[in-house]
Amino acid sequence: QVQLVESGGGLVQAGGSLRLSCAASRAIGVMRWYRQAPGKQRELVTIINSGGGIYYAESVKGRFTFSRDNAKNTVYLQMNNLKPEDTAVYYCNAATSQSEYWGQGTQVTVSS
C-alpha cells in the first residue's frame, strides 16, 4: 500500500505561480499528476519515470515543471504563468506493476 499526501494548492491570479507537492509513503518509480476541472474528465498533466524521463501535456508544456526528490519520496509540480483554464483539482498518482494509487487532490484556482 502507498499513501500519497498532496499540498500546495490555492488561489492565484492569472500569470502567477504555485508549487504542488506529493509525498509518498515509499519510493515509487512512475509518478503522475492529473487534473480535473468542473464538468470535465480527469486529464493527464505530466508523468515522471524512474529514470527521470518526463512527459508534459501540450497545454502545460513550457509552463509546468515536474521534479522529484528521491531522498524524500516527494515529487513537485512547479506551475508558472498560470491561466484560468488551469483551474482544477490536481491529483498525484503513483503506479506499480500491480497497483495504482491516488492522492486526495488539491484545489488550484486561477482568477482572471
List the helices and strands and how they pair.
Layout (H helix, E strand, L loop, with lengths): L3 E4 L2 E4 L4 E7 L5 E7 L6 E6 L5 E3 L7 E6 L4 E6 L8 E8 L4 E3 L3 E6 L1
Parallel strand pairs: 2-11
Antiparallel strand pairs: 1-3, 3-8, 4-5, 4-9, 5-6, 7-8, 9-10, 9-11
Q: Can you characterise this structure?
A:
- The chain is mainly beta.
- Helices cover 0% and strands 54% of the residues.
- The protein has no helices and 11 strands.
- Strands 2, 4, 5, 6, 9, 10 and 11 form a 7-stranded mixed β-sheet that branches. It has a 4-stranded antiparallel β-sheet with strand order 1-3-8-7, with no helix packed on it.
- The mean pLDDT is 95.
Helix-strand pattern, N to C? EEEEEEEEEEE
Large-scale geometry: globular
Main beta sheet, described?
7 strands, mixed
Classify the beta-strand content into a percent band.
Answer: over 45%
Concise description?
This protein has strands spanning 4-7, 10-13, 18-24, 30-36, 43-48, 54-56, 64-69, 74-79, 88-95, 100-102, 106-111. It is mostly beta strands and 112 residues long.
Give the tags.
four-stranded antiparallel beta sheet; about 0% helix; mainly beta; globular; about 110 residues; seven-stranded mixed beta sheet
